[in-house]
Amino acid sequence: MHIPFEISARYPDVRVSVLDERFLKYRIFSSSVEQLATGMRWAEGPVWFGDGRFVLVSDIPSNRIMRWDDAAGAWGVFREPSNNANGMARDHLGRLLVCEHLTRRITRTEYDGSITVLADAWQGKRLNSPNDIVCQMQGADRGSVWFTDPSFGISGHWEGMPATPELPHAVYRVDAAGQLHCVITDLQGPNGLAFSPDESILYVVESRAKPHRLVWAYDVGKGGALSNKRKVIDAQGAGALDGIAIDVDGNIWCGWGSDGSLAANPQDLDGVRVFTPQGEAIGHIHLPERCANLCFGGIHKNRLFMASSHSLYALFVHTQGAV
Q1: Domains identified in the chain, total number
Q2: Is 154 helix (H, G, I), strand (E, B) or coil?
Q3: Closest CA to 95 of 47, 130, 131, 63
Q4: Is 10 part of a structural domain of the chain?
Q5: Which residues in 161-179 are b (16+ Cβ under 10 Å) and which e?
Q6: Alpha-carbon distance 59 to 178, whole Å?
């Protein structure tokens, strides 16, 4: 499906809403939301490759990873089949990390294109369907890979293959030596995750929390020890939280959307909601489609790429991604 889109003819773009004056410093007056590509079935897991000036985006039901080239403006297939790839990231050495629903594993793409399996089981039982992924880039634990593992990809044929879960929903960590650790087991539908700029805090979206979706924060200690769990964001029925990204000031940029029943005009909720590190909503980027995930990129790391249902959107902002 191709979603028609018309770029704003005037500045500031009315799609970029200031909910609190603190967001004004992040809005570029003469920057508009752009639709870079469309035609996907369910866009997810964007990751920026600055050395190649391109963005990769998962089209999960289509079983492929798409590639948008910043220099040429070209759009095409990067990997097909992708094993119903979802979340993606780069590790501390620039290699591609992928959450695969179909094979229920985490993989790393080596420089020569070969695939290394980082994790596919815990204590002899298969993982559910790894969803989102991040890598520590600093300190003694540099190179540790963290990922969420809900059961979304094994619930039907749409994003993987139907199967009975063998493990509870959880968050895992692959340490720099390659050992797998189960670090969180009390969240329902753990989804997007991200680190604060100094990696002292891990944020995790609980997308099946009742009655509302939540974002939790954990202090990160040596060796990946987590402590001081606290609630940072409560969607309060106003949005379907999904993937998240953090800027250099620690603000949390959240993929946001409606399930179609939360408001008289549910499309008003679709897009990206921006929160302070304390969980206060300060801005909203309105999109014609629900945003599942997002990342910062561009030459100066100040371009927000938003994977949103059928399309990939972008907006230049007056901040930079923390990663």
Answers
A1: 1
A2: helix
A3: 47
A4: no
A5: eeeebbbebbbbbbeeeee
A6: 28
CA 299, 89, 280, 292 dihedral sign is positive
Q: Is the pLDDT of residue 107 over 90?
A: yes
Domain span including residue 242: 16-316
| Tokens at 321, concatenated | 């991604």
In this structure, is residue 26 part of a structural domain?
yes
Q: CA nearest 304: which of 267, 259, 273, 279?
A: 273
Handedness of CA 109, 182, 321, 213 (dihedral sign): positive
Is residue 82 included in any domain, yes or no? yes
* Residue 121 reports pLDDT greater than 60: yes
Q: What is the CATH number of the domain that holds 241?
A: 2.120.10.30
Q: Where are the beta strands (DSSP E) in 64-212?
A: 64-69, 75-79, 85-90, 96-100, 105-109, 115-119, 121-122, 125-126, 133-135, 145-149, 170-174, 180-184, 190-195, 201-206
- Indicate whether 220 belongs to any domain: yes
Tens of pLDDT, residues 300-314: 999 999 999 999 999
Mean pLDDT along residues 6-31: 96
Ordered DSSP codes for 233-255: EE-TTS-----EEEBTT--EEEE
* pLDDT tens track for 30-68: 999 999 999 999 999 999 999 999 999 999 999 999 999
Does residue 259 register a pLDDT over 80? no
C-alpha span between 270 and 238 (Å, rounded): 10
Q: Distance between CA atoms of 219 and 184, rounded to whole angstroms?
A: 13
The CA radius of gyration of the chain, in Å to the nearest whole number, is 18
In whole angstroms, what is the distance from residue 234 CA to residue 306 CA? Answer: 21
Q: Find, among 61, 27, 29, 16, the residue nearest to 43 by Cα.
A: 61
pTM: 0.97
